UniProtKB/TrEMBL annotation:
Protein's UniProt name: Acyltransferase
GO annotation, cellular component aspect: cytosol
Domain of life: Bacteria
Family label: Belongs to the transferase hexapeptide repeat family.
Keywords: Acyltransferase, Membrane, Transferase, Transmembrane, Transmembrane helix
Keyword Transmembrane helix among UniProt keywords: yes
Transmembrane spans: 12-30
Length: 181
């Protein structure tokens, strides 16, 4: 029975999902096509709100552990691993080539292990923007209304309404609820 379950899991969550993403690659990278991709991927997600937009070239692993709110946009060439659990709240924008990982390789007996991984969830709160080429690591909470600067590596929690950036990302400025940068 366990073998049957693994085969079914592979067919539903790996083969079928990636086949859908591959077929959707012929669509241009415009708002209407991104909405179509979001609709096509929605059934595979744990939860998904309305108006989910997914651009071309996005890789999603362990999609069944991911929850997406309303009006979320994930830009092209983003890589997401949901193994440890990922929640993206409403109004979040994830810019191109961002990496979001909920796992970390273990270091055992002086060697990096690909077999045993450490897992922890990631939460990206409502109205946040993750700028291009950023990395979000396991166990992180990005607060409400945050902006993460381009090329940042978020390794610890970011408080609500904070502009953070750098490697590792650190708070740079506190944002007002309706301010602009």
């Amino acid at each position: 029975m366990n073998s049957f379950r693994r085969t079914l899991n592979f067919i539903i969550y790996h083969f079928l999902l990636h086949l859908i993403l591959l077929i959707s690659e012929i669509l241009p990278n415009v708002k209407q096509s991104n909405r179509i991709r979001g609709i096509m991927v929605k059934p595979f997600l744990n939860k998904c709100g309305k108006n989910f937009q997914l651009a071309k070239g996005v890789t999603i692993n362990m999609i069944r552990n991911i929850e997406i709110g309303d009006d979320v946009y994930i830009a092209h060439n983003t890589w997401i691993n949901g193994a440890g659990g990922l929640k993206i709240e409403s109004g979040v924008i994830i810019s191109p080539m961002t990496v979001i990982t909920t796992t970390k390789h273990s270091y055992i007996n002086g060697k990096v292990s690909n077999v045993e991984a450490e897992l922890d969830s990631v939460l990206i709160c409502e109205g946040s923007w993750i700028a291009s080429n950023s990395v979000i690591t396991k166990g992180v909470r990005i607060g409400k209304g945050c902006i993460i600067g381009a090329c940042s590596s978020v390794t610890r929690d970011i408080p609500d309404y904070t502009f953070a950036g750098g490697v590792p990302a650190k708070p740079i400025k506190t944002l007002l609820e309706k301010s602009t940068i």
